């Protein structure tokens, strides 16, 4: 009897020791030298363990599989790009696999980019998949968009296009009553001109009003930015300055040669430019020209405008 009692006690002690040993392994610091984002593949424990070991998050696939099996009641392991902590233990690694949020990547569409430039931005964004399909000009709302690794370019663009529609609908519904526009698309066209003509918040409403004043009088808009867009084939820059030949060459975006608005937006305008187009400043200005300090000089008459032009040319010289 004593022999069996001794044996039971011995085995119990061994079991306790093994339990404490397993618990120590479970909570021991892992080999990952610094926090890292790791792509966890779909599949069984072998594939997940191999990926984690290759990335340095665990030291033993066998120990990982045992720990995952013993804690399976805590929930399934998820496949995603996840952030694992520095020297994370098996317990912490499994917690990330079960409850961690996928790593969020971001791509920023800056105000005033053309569709072609947005295509290049998307092509360079980390973790996006699929071939690049250029959005329609003026259809994307410039802002920062979050996505998970493996998301498609199309899915991000659809969100950006939906955001633009919502913003334009909101501003169209509250637009000033004294602007004569036929559609939301025309509002985006004016906003794109404003976006490309000035970067100063204080000037956006004034630039929009100049365009509306000229349209109301039947004057041509004479927007250099629209001519550049047409002459460059949908870009925002040219290898040389605008020439007299560029201004004289007829085309759907040449607002020197043709009356009314250009054929379409010349960029993707931001929220501030859209709101300026929907709510322009009160002014009788018909002209504006660079003032040599990064802004513009606005004028109500041609004589005043010509004096501003002469002043700018003198500064440029």
In short:
With 317 residues, this protein is mainly alpha-helical.
Q: What number of structural domains do the residues give? A: 3
Strand ordering within the main sheet: 1-2
> Could you say which overall geometry the principal axes of the C-alpha atoms support?
elongated
Measured between the Cα atoms of the first and last residue, the distance is 112 Å
- Number of beta strands: 6
Helix content: 40-55%
Which sheet architecture does the biggest sheet show?
A: 2 strands, antiparallel
Model description:
The protein has twelve helices and six strands. The chain is mostly helical and 317 residues long. The chain folds into three domains: 14-99, no CATH class; 104-164, no CATH class; 179-316, no CATH class. The chain has a two-stranded antiparallel ribbon with strand order 1-2. A two-stranded antiparallel ribbon has the order 3-4.
Features:
317 residues; mainly alpha; 3 domains; two-stranded antiparallel ribbon; 48% helix
Show the helix and strand layout.
Blueprint: H1 2-27, E1 36-39, H2 45-54, H3 61-70, E2 81-84, H4 90-99, E3 104-108, H5 115-124, E4 144-148, H6 153-173, H7 184-197, H8 201-216, H9 224-231, H10 244-248, H11 271-278, E5 287-290, E6 296-299, H12 302-316
Antiparallel strand pairs: 1-2, 3-4, 5-6
Helix pairs in contact: 2-3, 6-11, 7-8, 7-11, 8-11
């Amino acid at each position: 009897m004593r022999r069996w009692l001794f044996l039971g006690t011995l085995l119990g002690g061994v079991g306790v020791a093994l339990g404490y040993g397993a618990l120590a392994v479970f909570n021991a610091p892992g080999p990952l030298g610094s926090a890292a984002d790791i792509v966890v593949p779909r599949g069984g424990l072998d594939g997940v363990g191999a990926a984690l070991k290759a990335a340095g998050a665990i030291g033993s696939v066998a120990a990982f599989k045992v720990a995952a099996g013993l804690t399976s009641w805590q929930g399934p392991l998820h496949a995603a790009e996840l952030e694992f902590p520095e020297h994370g233990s098996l317990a912490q690694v499994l917690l990330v696999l079960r409850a961690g949020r996928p790593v969020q990547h971001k791509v920023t569409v800056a105000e005033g980019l053309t569709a072609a430039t947005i295509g290049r931005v998307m092509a360079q964004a980390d973790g996006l998949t699929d071939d690049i399909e250029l959005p329609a000009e003026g259809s994307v709302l410039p802002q920062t968009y979050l996505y998970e690794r493996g998301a498609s370019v199309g899915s991000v663009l659809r969100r950006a296009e939906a955001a633009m529609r919502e913003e334009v609908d909101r501003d169209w519904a509250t637009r000033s009553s004294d602007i004569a526009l036929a559609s939301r698309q025309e509002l985006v066209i004016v906003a794109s001109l404003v976006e490309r003509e000035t970067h100063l918040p204080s000037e956006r409403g004034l630039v929009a009003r100049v365009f509306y004043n000229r349209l109301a009088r039947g004057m041509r808009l004479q927007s250099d930015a629209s001519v550049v867009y047409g002459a460059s084939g949908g870009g925002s820059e040219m290898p040389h300055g605008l020439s007299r030949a560029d201004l004289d060459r007829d085309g759907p975006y040449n607002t020197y040669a043709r009356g009314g608005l250009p054929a379409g937006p010349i960029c993707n305008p931001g929220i501030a430019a859209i709101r300026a187009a929907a709510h322009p400043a009160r002014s009788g200005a018909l002209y504006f020209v660079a003032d040599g300090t990064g802004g513009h000089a606005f004028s109500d008459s041609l004589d005043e405008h010509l004096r501003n032009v002469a002043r700018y040319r003198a500064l440029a010289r």
